[in-house]
Model the fold of this input.
Amino acid sequence: MEEYGEVVGPQTVRLERVLPGPLERVWEYLTDSEKRGKWLASGELEPRVGGCVELKFLHSSLSPHVEETPERFKKYECGAGFVGRVTRYEPPRLLSYTWAGEKEGEDSEVTFELSPQGEKVLLTITHERLADPKTQADVASGWHAHTGILLDNLEGRTPRPFWSTWLAVEQEYKKRILS
Done:
């Protein structure tokens, strides 16, 4: 099991993953719609500060493993998405953009940092301005599941299922963050 992310400040969670490189390959999985769609969400990204980033989530498409969508997420079963704004763009090492919150005015911001580690790449995801500890636990669980699928893709393995992976780590994140 990959290491758990953690709360690193008020309203902020961070997760790190060591991935197979090279750096430019991992960068493509952050910025190219088709490659990002294999582990997170497809959608165009304008490669500049102030540019739009569109994220179209379809969790059932992330793995060939067929599984039931948890009841509380049924409303997203046919997909969900939003448009954010690129706030930092420094290829191939740093990308930040806004992330739509559940309610108006609750936008957060996610930052992806890539650092070479020999032939591997350290991916650090920092998600800031999260509304409350419950949101932090949900977001950390999501990043944990999504980065596991990213790792599977980069290593040439069949991607693990999203929902069962998310559910498997959710209770641990709740215990770590809400306790």
About this structure: The radius of gyration is 15 Å. The CA atoms of residues 94 and 113 lie 5 Å apart. Helices lie at 23-31, 33-36, 133-154, 162-178.
